[in-house]
Amino acid sequence: MKKAKRSNRDIVLQTATVLFLEKGYQVTSMDEIVTASKVSKTNIYYHFKSKEELLAAIVRQMTGTYNQIIEDIAGQTELTVTERIGRFAEVLSEQQPHSLGGCPFLTIYVQTSHESDFVREEIARFFQNQIFTLEKLLQEGIHRQEFKPGLPVSRIAELIVSTIEGGLFLQHTHRDSAFLPNLLQTLAYMLK
Asked: HTH tetR-type domain location, by residue (predicted)?
């Protein structure tokens, strides 16, 4: 069976994503994207009117992909809640291992100007979605008696997201792939 040819738009999105996450959005030029993608500048500007529009498309694609993955993991009810939360962290750390800040969303967020409202709002919605999903999982964990009753679910969900994000950053700076899993095991122990 013949492989479907990727569109120039998809090639540019993939190339720019890697460059923005590994090198930095601010320092990556459109000329570098042209060179790395082997797609003409005219063709790139046909699909994306500006570097900012390209970044917005990347963020939309990333949040959509991650939200789907997180939703799929949350639905794996044969796993414990603790195992599913651990999978969230694994997925985030596996997807972009060379991201400058450890987490691709953190990397992009800190590199965008305050005028990039769409990008910042999209990333904020992504994290709100994570918190909401974790709140539901924590409620399930309490119901299944995995966690102690009476936990402040909203605050714990925020703590887990913060722990994952901070853990991704520290895992990246320490170059220790066991850092985040160990951190989450400690957190799970505290919730029981």
From this structure: 6-66
Name residues whose C-beta falls within 8 Å of residue 121's C-beta, 6 or more positions apart in sequence: none
pTM: 0.83
Tokens of 14: 């993939």
- Model pLDDT for residues 134-182, shown as the tens digit of each residue: 999 999 999 999 988 999 999 999 998 888 888 777 777 777 777 777 7
Q: Show the DSSP H helices in the chain as ranges.
A: 8-22, 30-37, 41-47, 51-74, 81-95, 104-111, 117-143, 153-174, 179-191
Q: Exposed, middle or buried: residue 38 (CB in 10 Å: 0-12, 13-18, 19+)?
A: exposed
For 2, list phi and psi in degrees, rounded to 5.
-80, 135
CA distance 25 to 189: 38
Handedness of CA 107, 113, 114, 120 (dihedral sign): negative
